[in-house]
Amino acid sequence: MVITKADLVKKLSSDGVLKRKDCKRAVDCLIESMKHSLARGEDLLISGFGKFTIRHRGHKRVRNPRTGDEFLMSPRKVVTFRVSPVLRRRVNGHRQPA
């Protein structure tokens, strides 16, 4: 299942408490805040969901499978995600403790 920003806005506005325009603004603001935090190298923890972290990858020797040429990839940052134990239990069908 793919969930788009439009799906999130539709779900948030479905109860009629907030207008669709306000829900769109809230979703956009949330996603931008997440992007800015990660771009600054900060970890992003969403309680009960998981943690996004920035990892630094060093130089890496790689090979082009088509040509066989080898080259050195430059260092880079990657975003990783670690699921929370709460979500992991739910995905695996375990009930939440009372």
Descriptive account of the structure:
This protein has 98 residues and is α+β, with helices and mostly antiparallel strands. The chain folds into two domains: 40 residues; 56 residues, IHF-like DNA-binding proteins (HU Protein, Chain A), CATH 4.10.520.10. It contains three helices and five strands. Strands 1-2-5 form a three-stranded antiparallel β-sheet. A two-stranded antiparallel ribbon has the order 3-4. A hairpin with a 3-residue loop joins strand 1 and strand 2. Helix 1 crosses helix 2. The protein starts with a helix and ends in a 7-residue tail after the last helix. The model has no long low-confidence stretch (mean pLDDT 92).
Helix percent reads 25-40%
Alpha carbon gap, first and last residue:
29 Å
Mean pLDDT: 92
In the CATH hierarchy, the architecture of the largest domain is: Irregular
What portion of residues belong to β-strands?
A: 25-35%
Structural category: alpha+beta
What's the total helix number? 3
Low-pLDDT ranges: none
Name of the level-1 CATH class of the largest domain: Few Secondary Structures
- Tell me the count of domains: 2
Radius of gyration: 19 Å
Describe the biggest sheet? 3 strands, antiparallel
| CATH homologous superfamily assignment of the largest domain | IHF-like DNA-binding proteins
Question: Which labels suit this protein?
Answer:
98 residues, alpha+beta, HU Protein, Chain A, 2 domains, 3-stranded antiparallel beta sheet, two-stranded antiparallel sheet, extended
